[in-house]
Structures are given as structure tokens and as C-alpha cells.
Specification:
The structure is a single chain. Strand 4 and strand 5 (72-77) form a beta hairpin. By secondary structure, the chain is of the alpha+beta class. It has 5 helices and 8 strands. The chain is 45% helix and 18% strand. The chain has a 4-stranded antiparallel β-sheet. It folds into 2 domains: 25-155, Jelly Rolls (Sandwich); 156-217. The termini are far apart. It has helices spanning 7-11, 23-34, 116-123, 128-144, 161-217, and strands at residues 37-41, 46-48, 56-62, 64-69, 72-77, 81-82, 102-105, 109-115.
């Protein structure tokens, strides 16, 4: 992938324009471009689904996409970059860092994607100043778009795969323990219910037997 295709991702943001990008920034863009994955879509294919997490950046290499916005359709053409600003998540995002609209391919399209995990993996190997600047710009643009509420800025830190798996394992164990507790409570309830039912049945049988005895006497 040619670096010029993703150049806008960094230098087009307000506050980051420069005629002579730093070597680290140029290297960062090169590393990003090497991780772009090509995907191919036919007319009518859904590329981005409403409600889906903003976990990828999309570059339209060729073809066309239509954004199904609430107030009408918006066309996106070759060379446009979508979802780049939303790779950086904030806790005060009004839509919980999810896409607000469907994006549908309206032609035979080639779209290169970059995952959020890969983005942060590359970013972590560079000067923290670069991350802070991109976070500042992402916050500024998302705020301008009305995607954030007025609460204090709070960044959702990205986790690597190993951390995600560990957290998932812990969550699974906790869920297993809770399910075990629920199951134990269920069996306790069932045993109590059976005892009550047995007592009720025995009481009913005793009453029937008592009535039969009384009838025999008369």
C-alpha cells in the first residue's frame, strides 16, 4: 500500500499539519501502511454495520460506499478514509464507541482496513507524545461532530491480545462461579419445593382418609 494513501490519517488532523513531518511520524505511517488488509465488496454488501464497534479504519482504494445516515444517504469515494478518528475511544462517547450508521458498498469496491489493535500496537512503539497528540486531535474532532458528552475526557485504553485473553479468562471463571452459585440455589429451592409438595400431598391424603373414616361411621 502506498504511504500517500494513509498520509492524511496523521497530517490532515488539525494541529498536526507540517511541511516536514518528523522521521518518527513518517516511520509510523509506513508501519501502519504495512498492516493494511485488502477486502473486496460487491454492490449491496454491508461494509460497516450500525452498532458495530469502531474497531477498524477503512480506506476506499477503488469503488464507492454509501453511508445510510438518518437524514439521507452520503456517498464516499475513492481515496476517502473512514473511521480513522474513531480508532481512539473515549468513555464519554454518546454511542459507546459504536458506528451510528450502516455503510454499504454501492459498486465493486476494494477497501483496505486497519484494525484498532494493530493501530495501537504500532503506536505503542513510538514516542508517547505522538499518542497524546493523536488523542488530542481525535477528542477535538469527535467533540466537533457531537459524538461526545460534556463529561471530563476519559480515554479507553487499548489492550493487547494477551491482556484481552487473560481478562476474558477471569470473566469466564467469575461467570462460572456465579452460575455455580445460581445452580446451587436452584437445587436448594427445588429440594424445599419438593418437601413442601410432599407435605401438602400427605396432608391431602390424611384429609381424604379422615373423610372416608367419618363416612363409614355414619
Amino acid at each position: 500500500m502506498n504511504i500517500s494513501s494513509v498520509d492524511n490519517f496523521l497530517i490532515s488532523f488539525p494541529g498536526t499539519e507540517t511541511n516536514c513531518p518528523e522521521v518518527s511520524e513518517r516511520s509510523f505511517l509506513n508501519d501502519i501502511s504495512e498492516l493494511l488488509e485488502p477486502h473486496y465488496f460487491c454492490p449491496g454488501d454491508v461494509v460497516i454495520e450500525k452498532g458495530q464497534f469502531c474497531s477498524s479504519m477503512f480506506i476506499i482504494v477503488c469503488g464507492q460506499m454509501v453511508e445510510m445516515a438518518d437524514d439521507g444517504e452520503v456517498d464516499h469515494y475513492e481515496g476517502e478514509i473512514l473511521g480513522d478518528v474513531n480508532l481512539i475511544w473515549f468513555n464519554n462517547h454518546l454511542n459507546n464507541n459504536r458506528h451510528q450508521h450502516n455503510f454499504v458498498s454501492s459498486a465493486f469496491s476494494q477497501i483496505h482496513m486497519l484494525s484498532r489493535d494493530d493501530f495501537f500496537k504500532v503506536l505503542s512503539s513510538y514516542d508517547p507524545k505522538l499518542k497524546r497528540r493523536l488523542c488530542d486531535v481525535a477528542f477535538y474532532l469527535q467533540k466537533q461532530r457531537g459524538e461526545l458528552d460534556d463529561n471530563k475526557r476519559s480515554l479507553v485504553e487499548n489492550e493487547d491480545m494477551e491482556t484481552n485473553l487473560k481478562r476474558l479468562a477471569i470473566d469466564t471463571l467469575e461467570l462460572h462461579d456465579k452460575m455455580g452459585e445460581v445452580e446451587e440455589e436452584f437445587w436448594k429451592f427445588q429440594r424445599k419445593a419438593k418437601k413442601k409438595l410432599f407435605k401438602s400431598e400427605m396432608t391431602a391424603i390424611d384429609l381424604l382418609n379422615s373423610r372416608k373414616k367419618m363416612r363409614r361411621r355414619f
